[in-house]
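Re-running the complex after MR caught last week's input typo. The corrected sequence lines follow. Everything else is unchanged.
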Amino acid sequence: MIDLHTHSNISDGTDSPRELVNKALAAGITVLGLTDHDTIAGWPEAISALRPGIDLVLGAEISAQTSDGVSVHILGLLFDPDHQELAQVLLQTRDNRVGRMEKIIARLNAAGIDITMEDVLNQLSEGATLGRPHLADALVAKKIVKNREEAFSDLLHNNSKHYVSHYSPSPERAIELIKAAGGVAVIAHPFASLRGRVLSVESFTGLAAAGLDGIEIEHRDQNEGERGLLREIVQAFDLIQTGSSDYHGTGKLNQLGEFTTSPDNWERLESRANQRRVVRA
Ligand code: AMP
Ligand code: ZN
Ligand code: FE
Ligand code: FE
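Corrected-run output:
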């Protein structure tokens, strides 16, 4: 089973990279993508946890934003970690997430909700990318909400009055940087309309021109209608379709391997990287 999109506690998942690799092996995953939000800091531990039977695809889920404010997640896989411009953009995004969190907290405080930056940082593993799920966990710890789901649906969703975005590159720029760094670029859950506004069908023309390689179609946040439309886009631009779990440990219901990428499609995708970068024990 090939699962190219998972998170560890180096962003908003709950398993360490080592635990993630172990659980993936136990779940029968043979090719595992590690795609923490805007960071590659989990790569060394994941590599050191490798054992025979599982291939590791190192990557990151890069936060991007269109000029009209639509949030887009781009999976960058198999890129060169020493590419300076890409590393710089990821660093800028991570830095900006701190001030952004302070703004969201200020809005919650103004609405009478008692939560501090310290509460949020207590939920974060060392060196991890800060995100709304950590704020959700802090709200759970203070018994303000029951779980992450309730935190998002009541207070933190993209259309809520407490929402603040952070710096992110445009989707085209993110794709160009991933390609410049020798990797492959796949748009994660592009039509996950439950989460907020999504890309227009027309925008795929520019994304394909920027070098997009694939589209994540099989994902629990996309319904059958959304998947059907994405299959047409994949056909129209000769892209590669993937499916993945977007596993976050206990942070979300998503289970490892609940959606997968076919071996054929994975082979086509991997062949588009400028070097063989899959890591094996
Ligand atoms: P951020 O990167 O800080 O904008 O937070 C976005 C992240 O929150 C997403 O990548 C998901 O991992 C998580 N998320 C979004 N919606 C939900 C939800 N309804 N329940 C739990 N986690 C969510
Ligand atoms: Zn996440
Ligand atoms: Fe995502
Ligand atoms: Fe994700």
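None of the earlier attempt is carried over here. The longest strand covers residues 55-65. The domain at 99-156 is CATH 1.10.150.650 (DNA polymerase; domain 1).
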